Amino acid sequence: MDVKSKTGRIIILSTVFCLLYIILALRPTGTELHFTPEWTVSIADAPSETEQDCIPFRLGQDAGYFTEDGKIAYAVSFPYKAAVSENYIAPFSPDAAETKFYSPKGNELGVIKSEGFPFFEEDRIFVFIPGGSTFIKCDVNGNEFWRYEYYAPITAFSSSKEAFLAGYADGRMIAFDPRGNILQDFVAEGCTYPVILGAGISYDGTTAACISGHEPQRFIVSKKEENHSKIIFHAQLKNETYEQQPVKFSRDGKSIFYGCSGGIGIAIPEERKNIIIPLEGLISQIEESPAENFFYILSRSGDTCTVTIIEDSQNKAAEFSFKAQHAFIKAKGTKLFVGRDKKISAITVSRK
């Protein structure tokens, strides 16, 4: 091949490459997040009868339920505290020997006869006994099913349908099956001051995670294997937190989100990754979208609340802030529900 032919082919190939590059550059390479406000309702509105599934809320000294289309189904004000979940609600006082609990429509369902502080997660009923080191698992009628007593105070707690997890002030972490049998029991050693500051259990109950100790502080993930617990991932945290923090597994169990000093931590054990995304304030809630590959993070700094959207378990996609003394978030379908003081709003989040 002579020089002219060779040069001509190079020029043609270069021209084709440049044209392809320009065409591809002009095509949209991604989509944008869109936030569409749907409705806003006051929790002071008169309750409406409904056959829809209800979504729980708690804002300051008010708690109750609302519907996906923006109606208040049930609301109650309480002077001390209230426990609320998708299935149950129960205002209670610090000296109550018994606590009545109700359905999302306000119908009395039963009485918790154990003295203490009720705690609900979905259809699971627990009571934390005064003193802080003992908890009770109740049946659907509020009767004691089983209890676990320990000497150190409970500092973190999490539950799923398959397992319950308690973290203690001495650094111990114990996972139980629904009947009270111990699935995992271990102490993460190697720190100067052992304490569990946050704990989470996977949806299938096989894997537990916690924020453990001080000097150093670590994020630890353990898995039940036959008759023992095996640590499958750990990461030392450079900036230590001294507050109790939420820990939440993704539904597929591949990612674990946790509050930490200066932001939100995301552990991906299979990839040996521990990502810290800087955020202002203290993390108060972590919600997974059931429709999109999003996690919503609610954080607070003073009276400024911020909702941050994490995509693909590692990328900060968007955020927005608002002023409120009390706030919550809840994800359902493509909607994000945001509560602030006396109002609840629905926002559709999508990519277009």
Structure description:
There is one protein chain. The protein is mainly β and about 350 residues long. The protein is built from 1 helix and 31 strands. It has one helix spanning about 5-25, and strands at about 35-40, 55-60, 60-65, 70-75, 80-85, 90, 100, 110, 115-120, 125-130, 135-140, 145-150, 155-160, 165-170, 170-175, 180-185, 195-200, 205-215, 215-225, 230-235, 245-250, 255-260, 265-270, 275-280, 280-290, 295-300, 305-310, 315-325, 325-330, 335-340, 345-350. The strands form 9 sheets. A 4-stranded antiparallel sheet has the order 1-31-30-29, with no helix packed on it.
Overall morphology: globular
Number of helices: 1
Strand content: over 45%
Question: N-to-C terminal Cα separation, in Å?
Answer: 51 Å
Q: Can you list the strand order of the major beta sheet?
A: 1-31-30-29
Mean pLDDT: 90
Question: How big is the Rg?
Answer: 25 Å
Main sheet makeup: 4 strands, antiparallel
Low-confidence stretches: 3-7, 15-29
Total beta strand runs:
31
Query: Could you say which structural class the secondary elements and strand pairing correspond to?
Result: mainly beta
Percent helix range: under 10%
